[in-house]
Amino acid sequence: MSWDDGRNYFLIAVMIYGLSAIYSIFLLRKGFRQDNRVNYLLLLTAAVFHTVAMFERGFSLDRCPINNLYEATTFIAWTIVASYLLLGFWPRLRFLGAFAAPLLFAVGVFALFPDLDTRGTKPQFVHGWSSLHAALILLSYGAFGLSSLAALMYLTQEHDLKFHKLRAVFSLMPPIQRLEVVVARLLLAGFLLLTTGLVIGAFWLKHVQGVFFKQDLKILWSLVVWVFYLALLVLHGWFAQRGRRFAWGAIGGFTFVLLTFWGSNLASTIHNP
Q1: Among 213, 225, 219, which Cα is nearest to 265's?
Q2: What is the pTM (predicted TM-score) of this model?
């Protein structure tokens, strides 16, 4: 392992994510009564090392660094932290970081497992359209991950209000109505990215194998994820499925993605040749 392939830079990023996760525990115990600029700066610093790691890996491969599970995992984590840093310009959404840090740390530790960073003679995602397909889908997972964090914030606020806890009054987190809007918009953004990525993937498959659809486990899994998020958005927009159920749906959907993405990818003959 050398500095040239970016893994050591990513290791530093994961360590800083860990520090942020520890600091987040104190924020949670204090009930978010002060603006957490320290946590924002910790995640910003980690994101810098994370970005350098991805660039180093890309330069070492001379291609987009999304060719195995390690690189796909780091890309998903990067989209989550990058999205958070953009939202963090609004102080009342900076507290997403207290929920994002433990997730980023856990995903980062998982990504560093040696078995995920295998380098075969045939990369999984090469050439323009296939790289765009992979990048858009991984970006959608990042949006889904951030929506689940906003949903967790919603449930925290809802719990405090339900049990008349004073920290709900003094908390600097956004009102639960606004948090629900944030969850819905992030889900919609993720769904649009996923849809575009799947359409591009279908045309790429037609180009290389002559068919738009193939009974591959990863393709079937992606369609299940697409149908789930479509149903969640339809229920929210047209059937007034709101509040706790909507928040739990966002959390459950991303939990499913996080736990099954790796297995479906390994079992795929297209994505893991």
Answers
A1: 219
A2: 0.67
